[in-house]
Amino acid sequence: MADIEIKDIIKKENLVYSKSKILTDNEMHYCPGCSHGTSHKLVAEVIEEMGIQEKTIGISPVGCSVLAYNYLDIDWQQAAHGRAPALATAAKRLMPDHFVFTYQGDGDLASIGTAEILHACNRGENITVIFVNNAIYGMTGGQMAPTTLIGMPTATSPYGREAALHGFPLKITELIAQLPGVAYVTRQSVHTPAAARKAKKAIRKGFENQEKKIGTSFIEIVSTCSSGWKLSPVASNQWMEEHMFKFYPLGDLKDAERDNEADYKKYIE
Amino acid sequence: MAKVRGAIVVDIEKCKGCGVCVTACPTNVIQLAKQVNGKGYNYAYMENPEACTGCANCALVCPDTVIEVYRVKV
Lengths: 269, 74
Known about the structure:
The complex is a heterodimer. By secondary structure, chain A is of the alpha/beta class. Chain A has one domain: Rossmann fold (3-Layer(aba) Sandwich), CATH 3.40.50.970. Chain A is 40% helix and 18% strand. Chain A has a seven-stranded mixed sheet, sandwiched between helices. In chain A, strand 8, helix 8 (193-212) and strand 9 form a beta-alpha-beta unit. Chain B is an alpha+beta fold. Chain B has one domain (4-73): Alpha-Beta Plaits (2-Layer Sandwich), CATH 3.30.70. Helix content of chain B is 14%, strand content 27%. Chain B has helices at 20-24, 57-61; strands at residues 4-10, 30-32, 44-46, 67-73. Chain B starts with a strand and ends with a strand.
């Protein structure tokens, strides 16, 4: 078999994967190995594949992903801390033919924005929520978040989180799965190619649910914060597999379409 | 049996050297370079290009999407 030169492989017609057109050429400000970059990419790929760039509105939070509008070439609004679901409600109700999603971290969604997310989900707003949970406040320097695991050291709990002093980690995704207005709740991760593909499918399903008008879709992405956790990107992924997945197991928590819940139908009608 | 050959092109100046692609590669093609780019990161490169199958796993997990993947049947 005749061997082939690298320069013969690298030709336009052989291209199988390149950056999504929705992603801008701006260099991301995220730390090396940050899950935000991968999550942004998956959202961009879903938007590109569905061909909905012109009618997608993203609501960015306060946190590391506050600058998401620099990276995805769609319409964006920036919400006050934790208030992205309220803003998404307004955008979706005013423009029901648009696809509206919020992109929030755990410090935004599970702490200051708990009321907004619970009520938006309880009202069953036709929005998609992408919740990036890295169990820490990344942007402000690695402080303890509501989702921080027991025993996990952070800047504000240097000896590890103690249940007696700091309370228990909040499983907000499980809380939201109980609400009848919610159509789809899932927990994914983006640390391996297989996990990233599953997460992309989940995000796509979340966007498609908006077309079907069947309620809120909530996609948690368990992610890493290598700067906050003081580990290398690869070590953070391992740490996440060993510790985070025990407390935050991956998989679908609710799929109303599949489960065909009686109470869900009743609420929709 | 049809053999598949692949190749990747890394945008060196945008690579942050996180090494996630190195662990994602099933055929151990990618390594981090000893040299650094303009930002001081050890960028990813093809250490073992013959083994690349163009599966695009590295590009999928790359947080900064700096990898382009090419694949050809030989």
